[in-house]
Design goal:
The structure holds two protein chains of two kinds. Chain A is an alpha/beta fold. Helices cover 38% and strands 18% of the residues of chain A. Chain A has a single domain, classed as Rossmann fold (3-Layer(aba) Sandwich), CATH 3.40.50.2020. In chain A, a hairpin with a 6-residue loop joins strand 1 and strand 2. The termini of chain A are far apart. In chain B, strands 15-14-13-12-11-10-23-24 form an eight-stranded mixed beta sheet, with helices on one face. The longest helix of chain B has 28 residues. Chain B is globular and about 95 Å long. Classes of the chains: A alpha/beta, B alpha/beta. At the A-B interface, helix 1 and strand 1 of A face helix 10 of B.
């Protein structure tokens, strides 16, 4: 309802990704071309069977996962962390176009529905962002995504179980080792009972090196979660 | 669904405009055109359909909420009325004016424009009891003049209430708590400004910050208008924008979440709006800023043009008559220029220079309002670009400093005073800059009032140019767009002498009680005989000059003063000051009158040749067009000036006009004795129809078919006297009076005449 009102009050005349003119709204935030481009990129490359990262050749596992298999059950993304996927997530995060989370969440739900290895799922949990970012932006984009997925799947979403207890510097400039060190003891489980022996779906916006996801999975499993599966909007390339 | 609220706004405004003016034919044609587009033009069919729906809705809504101006209203004598003050009362040196809302059973009397002829300290929201006479506002007396009754009727006001004495006004109860707080804040702040800054600076700061221009010297204000920077006094987007920026900055310092930022900005804007009593530009700006903040808060992309349209729709739905207010039109067009034209042009031109950018901002706003400024103020300010360049930023500084002072006024008075001093310095800079620009040649040009169709042509041309601007390759409409725009400029810049060549014209301008006659020779020379004058207002700057400007008259061949009484002389001084004049003519016998000192000095300064007229002279200004001086001779003496008035006879082929000034019986007798009075087509009745100037023989000899009387409505002298009117009636002379007919225009090709009264 609110979306319809906002669509009427603030009609979107340009595609939020390529800025092409046209008629857009909550349901169609970007144009047909961008949508087609996204579609075309989805099956174009082989992916790592564990973490969903894109591979150069059809080897089955990425370099990292073949050395040390991840603790989570499965991780998949809608597409690679490249344009237009990258623009979409940046528009959501940095320009604060919160309505994009609807369409993005729906596309993530599609991936979940098409992959039997996710099922069953008992609870949806977003990866928490740093308090600084939260205050500045006023919202947690992963929570918005998780909420939309949970709404579509009719499963409970809870953003208060997995919390960040340590303010970590931005991961962006760091190497993989530094990231892991950086994240050590950054997360905590608030309510163990809620995830005990449950099949948890962890939601994040982007899977780059996987450090955050691995750390969250570890904490969740240690707290007694039965199984952790991961869905992200975009993922990096494993080569 | 809606494509852009700006489109909706345009269609809504068009619907209201056409319905209000009863342009039903045009309306049906427009709807037909839109219907054709819906059917045959795929690309635009949706927009056209929206257009039809919105326009139809707009017309129906307007017809439902508009109340027709009540007709046959009558002025009423003394009445006691109780009501509440709706706006911030202003004192202009003579009158304290405010709008009052009362609970009268008559709808027409519910809102009154009250003028108290004394200074009294009133506040918005006060409940007052007044005893006053209800009068009807006077419709414009001169062609194209500001229509005061209509302007008031847009605010649902149909009566003026005149309160003469201080004892006729009683304050019953003070305003509500919130209003009281705002009033006292306002007052404290104004007092601080007045204490800190010299008068002129204080008045300007008050105008720039609070939109109260009643303290500013009208001449100064006019100068700002001429250089095109008067908009700094219109409290609007600039102010609200800075307020939002200031608030956003402060809330960021406090590390507040977006929600608190959003609400604190809203509250601050609302407070400021209440402080300045919500003029239309502020409503517009607050709605736009509110929508922008809301969009940001809700995670939506907002386009300024869309917000502008939405703000327009909201204002028009709240009050459709807002569309006809100058401030509404100006604020919308200027903002349109800024949010639409500016980014569009900026995207096309590649540059990195800051100065260009500032120029472009100012250019875009100017381009969007040029026709409106020409229409309402008859001004074209080519140098506005340059004067705005610095002034806008200086005024921005003044506004920011003013706001800071406002916020600090409670806590750190010394800091507030510091800010005010800085603001004062900026104001001095603005004044100096303005003076500099005023001195440049071509800083401003007076232009004839453009017809509505011409304005439409300008905007259509602008639309075509915009449409073609960004497109690549063929630009078939670019040229026609440019042609339309140039036609607009050409026509408003045409000199007045171009029109009606070969026929002469006489205009008895409505100057209230007084005389002012404009003559146009067949070849287009303009002569102004007398300029009106009054102890209460200056008809020179409020009636005569505006009339000349509206017609595109930029220079006069000659100004003539019949005799140096105030109601004939005063206006001429203003005209001589503002307009290039070649000759100044005064009666030779009154040459030494002390009243002429100002005018003579002006003539000397401005290189105007002084002519001393006496009987027997003939001014051969053009072939066939003669101005003959019949009276007085060089040595005529007398008690009063009236009997030494110039009497002129202007003749063009078979047409002739007698202008006897304020001459009385004595003078008339001398004139008749000298057998000077020849039959004339038209006679101006001497001395505004006073009984002292009634001499039936004068009309026997002059045998006019028309008599003109220049006289103020309800004047204190009892002009024109009933005996005079009776005498004229008896001699079968048709009479036109400026108090009843407004300005009277008479055209003649030398044979036939055409009389065009204004009312």
């Amino acid at each position: 309802m609110l979306d319809i009102i906002m669509d009427i009050l603030f009609p979107q005349n340009v595609c939020c990704i390529c800025r092409d003119t046209g008629r857009f709204g909550s349901k169609h935030p970007w144009c047909e071309q961008c949508q087609a481009e996204m579609k075309a990129m989805q099956g174009a490359l082989p992916i790592c069977d564990y973490c969903g990262k894109y591979l150069e050749t059809g080897a089955g596992f990425c370099h990292e996962c073949s050395q040390k298999p991840p603790q989570f059950n499965i991780a998949r993304a809608v597409g690679p962390y490249e344009e237009p996927y990258r623009i979409a997530v940046k528009v959501l995060k940095f320009l604060g176009r919160k309505y994009l989370a609807k369409k993005m969440g729906d596309m993530m739900t599609e991936v979940l529905k098409n992959e039997p290895r996710y099922w069953p799922i008992d609870i949806v949990i977003p990866v928490p962002i740093s308090l600084g970012n939260l205050r500045q932006r006023g919202f947690n984009q992963t929570e918005l995504l998780a909420r939309q997925i949970a709404r579509r799947l009719k499963i409970e979403m809870n953003s208060d179980i997995l919390v960040r207890i340590k303010e970590t510097p931005s991961q962006r400039e760091l190497t993989k080792e530094e990231r892991e060190k950086n994240l050590l003891c950054a997360f905590e489980i608030k309510d163990n009972g809620k995830i005990y022996r449950k099949n948890v779906l962890l939601v994040d916006d982007v899977y780059t090196t996987g450090s955050t996801i691995r750390e969250c999975s570890r904490v969740l499993l240690e707290a007694g979660a039965g199984r952790v599966s991961v869905i992200t909007w975009a993922t990096g390339k494993g080569f | 669904m809606i494509n852009s609220w700006f489109e909706v706004f345009i269609f809504l405004a068009a619907g209201i405009y056409l319905a209000h003016n009863n342009y039903w034919l045009m309306l049906s044609l427009l709807l037909l055109l839109l219907a054709l587009i819906v059917l045959y033009h795929k690309n635009y069919s949706r927009q056209a359909l929206t257009g039809i729906i919105v326009m139809a809705a707009g017309i129906l809504y307007f017809m439902a909420v508009s109340d027709p101006v009540p007709s046959a209203l009558q002025a009423q004598g003394s009445a006691v009325i109780t009501g509440q003050i709706l706006n911030i009362p202003a004192y202009d040196g003579q009158k304290t004016r405010f709008i009052m809302l009362n609970d009268s059973p008559n709808d027409e009397e519910r809102r009154l424009q009250v003028s108290c002829y004394f200074k009294i300290d009133l506040q918005k929201g006060d409940k007052v009891q007044i005893r006053g006479a209800l009068k009807l506002p006077v419709p414009p007396g001169n062609p194209g003049e500001f229509d005061y009754p209509r302007y008031l009727s847009y605010q649902h006001i149909y009566y003026l209430c005149i309160v003469k004495n201080n004892s006729d006004l009683k304050i019953l109860s003070p305003p509500g708590l919130a209003q009281k707080w705002i009033n006292s804040f306002n007052k404290d702040y104004e007092r601080l400004i007045k204490d800190v800054l010299p008068d002129q600076e204080a008045a300007i700061l008050r105008g720039m910050l609070l939109g109260k221009v009643d303290d500013i010297d009208p001449e100064q204000y006019k100068d700002f208008q001429k250089t095109g920077i008067v908009h700094v006094f219109s409290v609007s987007g600039l102010h609200v924008g800075f307020l939002v920026l200031l608030c956003a900055w402060l809330t960021s310092l406090l590390n507040l979440s977006p929600r608190y930022k959003f609400f604190s900005c809203l509250i601050l804007m609302f407070l400021y709006g209440s402080l300045v009593s919500w003029p239309v530009p502020v409503i517009r700006a607050v709605i736009m800023a509110g929508l922008g903040l809301f969009a940001h808060y809700m995670g939506r992309e907002q386009q300024l043009l869309n917000s502008l349209g939405l703000a327009g729709c909201i204002i028009l739905i709240l009050d459709p008559y807002a569309l006809f207010m100058i401030s509404f039109q100006l604020t919308f067009m200027a903002t349109w220029g800024l949010v639409y034209l500016y980014p569009l042009i900026k995207a096309e031109i590649q540059y990195k220079n800051m100065i260009w950018d500032l120029m472009l901002v100012s250019l875009c706003a100017q381009v969007a309002v040029i026709p409106l400024i020409a229409y309402y103020f008859n001004l074209l300010s080519p140098l506005a670009l340059i004067s705005n360049l610095l002034t806008t930023w200086l005024s921005a500084g003044v506004v920011i400093l003013g706001f800071l002072a406002m916020m600090l006024a409670g806590g750190g008075v010394w800091l507030a005073i510091g800010c005010l001093y800085m603001a004062g310095l900026f104001i001095e800079l603005i004044l100096a800059l303005n003076k500099l620009v005023m001195m440049m040649p071509g800083a401003y040009i007076w232009v004839a009032t453009p017809a509505i169709l011409l304005i439409a042509a300008y905007y259509a041309g602008l639309g075509l140019v915009i449409k073609q601007w960004g497109s690549d390759g063929q630009k078939p409409y670019l040229l026609s767009g440019l042609v339309l725009i140039s036609v607009f400029f050409m026509i408003i810049l045409l000199p007045a002498w171009i029109y009606d060549r070969g026929s002469m014209e006489v205009v008895m301008i409505d100057v209230g009680q007084g005389d002012s006659v404009l003559l146009k020779s067949p070849a287009g020379k303009f002569i102004l005989v007398d300029g009106g004058g009054s102890a209460f207002f200056d008809p020179g700057s409020s009636k005569v000059l505006p009339y000349l400007h509206r017609r595109g008259i930029r220079e006069l061949y000659m100004i003539v003063n019949s005799h140096p009484d105030l109601d004939h002389l005063q206006g001429l001084e203003k005209v001589a000051k503002e307009m290039p004049v070649e000759y100044l003519a005064i009666p030779a016998c009154l040459e030494a009158a002390p009243e002429y000192e100002v005018l003579k000095k002006l003539a000397h300064e401005r290189d105007i040749t002084l002519l001393k007229l006496s009987s027997g002279q003939q001014l051969g200004i053009e072939k066939d067009w003669l101005v003959k001086v019949l009276y007085p001779d060089k040595k005529t003496k007398g008690e009063n000036y009236n009997n030494r008035s110039l009497v002129l006879r202007i003749a063009y082929k078979d047409f002739s006009l007698l202008l006897p000034g304020d001459i009385e019986k004595e003078g008339l007798q001398t004139l008749l004795q000298g057998k000077q009075v020849k039959p004339s087509t038209i006679v101006k009745v001497p001395h505004h129809g006073s009984k002292g100037s009634l001499l039936p023989e004068f009309y026997d000899k002059s045998k006019p078919s028309l008599a003109l009387i220049s006289v103020g409505a309800n004047n204190n002298f009892g002009h024109p006297h009933p005996d005079v009117l009776q005498s004229l009636d008896k001699q079968d002379i048709k009479v036109f009076r400026t108090d009843l007919d407004g300005a009277i225009r008479i055209k003649s090709d030398g044979e036939s005449i055409e009389v065009l009264p204004t009312r």
